[in-house]
């Protein structure tokens, strides 16, 4: 049977993508297009939790734990090599830091967004399948961003420094996919970019890399532009539980994603679909496998798909979450408003 990536265990701890992950990816993309710094993932997690409690009494955005003062490091992580015809994908999630001596709550200073309102969206493809990877342009974006940002500069500003160094945040690693869709006025979704990796990634670096890679390097589409922000929705999927299939139909619709590999005309080909693709398209298992083989480059007759040489398959599961631009816009506007009131 087809083996997973050598460094990928067959069973990973089940991870759940969150709205904070989605908002973070939106902020990464918007910041890249608007030429500004983006929030870090720990900041996004903290501020989303605060936003959900925004109607409770408070005095602006304040940090309850000084260890959330994350300096803006270069989060550029090298993209992993993908198998033939298979997408790349990345992930990262931080555990709460060990509590140290209590410091006074400190004010958070966030650079304001140059513009939240975007112009009319450009036309988008109606393709609905994940894509292959090309990392050149997003790598350049990350390099450009990091060159403008000092590693000693923090978005969080404190009244006084912590008396002890903050413990390192331990980040779990997951394979992941970032998917960008355009949403019409009637709610119809069209794929705008989808790229991920089966190589486990720390979530901060992984989500940063693939939010940009999916936006700018999906070769089926032109790079996403600023004018399109208001039409976008993002979906994050963290993958786990990779299991070799006894045969190519040894998986369940709506539960498993499928990764296949086979030989055709002397070439090894492969491709993958995320767990929700077949259900969204209304496909049977057979139709899903045929579509996946065509995605990989197979050009045979549909009825002959079982005759390909050395077919191998792996099923996997994934927990996904998504949100639209309006959710991010409202959250980010709240951040800018609260941080502005704190400054005054």
If you had to describe this structure to a student in words, what would you say it looks like?
- The structure is a single chain.
- With 344 residues, the chain is an alpha+beta fold.
- The chain has helices spanning 19-34, 41-52, 136-148, 203-216, 277-281, 285-296, 325-343, and strands at residues 62-63, 93-94, 106-107, 171-183, 189-202, 232-244, 257-264, 267-273, 309-324.
- Helix 1 crosses helix 2 (41-52).
- The model is unreliable at 1-12 and 63-167 (pLDDT under 50).
List keywords for this structure.
disordered N terminus, 9 strands, single chain
Q: What is the gyration radius calculated from CA atoms? A: 21 Å
> Poorly predicted ranges (pLDDT <50, ≥5 residues)?
1-12, 63-167
End-to-end distance? 63 Å
- How many strands in all? 9
* Overall form: elongated
Number of helices, where a helix is a run of at least 4 consecutive DSSP H or I residues: 7
What percent of residues adopt helix (DSSP H or I)?
Answer: 25-40%
How can the largest sheet be summarized?
7 strands, antiparallel
Q: Order of helices and strands, N to C?
A: HHEEEHEEHEEEHHEH
The helix/strand class is alpha+beta
Strand content: 15-25%
Q: What's the average pLDDT? A: 73
């Amino acid at each position: 049977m087809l083996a997973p990536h050598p460094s990928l265990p067959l069973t990973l701890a089940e991870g759940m993508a969150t709205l904070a992950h989605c908002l973070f990816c939106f902020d990464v993309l918007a910041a890249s297009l608007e030429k500004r710094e983006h929030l870090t993932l720990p900041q996004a997690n903290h501020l989303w939790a605060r936003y959900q409690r925004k109607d409770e009494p408070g005095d602006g955005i304040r940090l309850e734990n000084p260890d959330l003062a994350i300096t803006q490091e270069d989060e550029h992580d090298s993209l992993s090599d993908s198998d033939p015809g298979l997408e790349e994908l990345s992930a990262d999630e931080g555990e709460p830091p060990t509590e140290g001596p209590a410091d006074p709550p400190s004010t958070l200073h966030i650079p304001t967004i140059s513009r939240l309102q975007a112009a009319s969206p450009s036309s988008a493809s109606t393709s609905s399948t994940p894509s292959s990877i090309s990392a050149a342009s997003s790598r350049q974006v990350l390099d450009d961003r990091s060159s403008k940002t000092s590693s000693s500069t923090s978005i969080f500003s404190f009244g006084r420094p912590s008396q002890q160094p903050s413990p390192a945040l331990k980040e779990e690693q997951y394979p992941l996919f970032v998917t960008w869709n355009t949403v019409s006025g009637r709610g119809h979704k069209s794929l705008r970019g989808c790229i991920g990796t089966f190589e486990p990634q720390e979530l901060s670096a992984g989500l940063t890399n693939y939010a940009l890679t999916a936006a700018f390097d999906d070769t089926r589409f032109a790079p996403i532009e600023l004018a399109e922000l208001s039409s976008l929705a993002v979906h994050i999927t963290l993958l786990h539980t990779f299991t070799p299939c006894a045969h190519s139909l040894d998986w369940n619709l709506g539960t498993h994603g499928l990764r296949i590999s086979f030989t055709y005309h002397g070439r090894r080909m492969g491709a993958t679909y995320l767990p929700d693709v077949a259900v969204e398209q209304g496909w049977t298992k057979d139709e899903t496998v045929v579509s996946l083989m065509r995605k990989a480059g197979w050009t045979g007759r549909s009825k002959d798909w079982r005759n390909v040489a050395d077919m191998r398959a792996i099923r996997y599961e994934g927990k996904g979450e998504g949100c639209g631009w309006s959710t991010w816009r409202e959250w980010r506007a709240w951040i800018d408003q609260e941080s502005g009131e704190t400054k005054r």
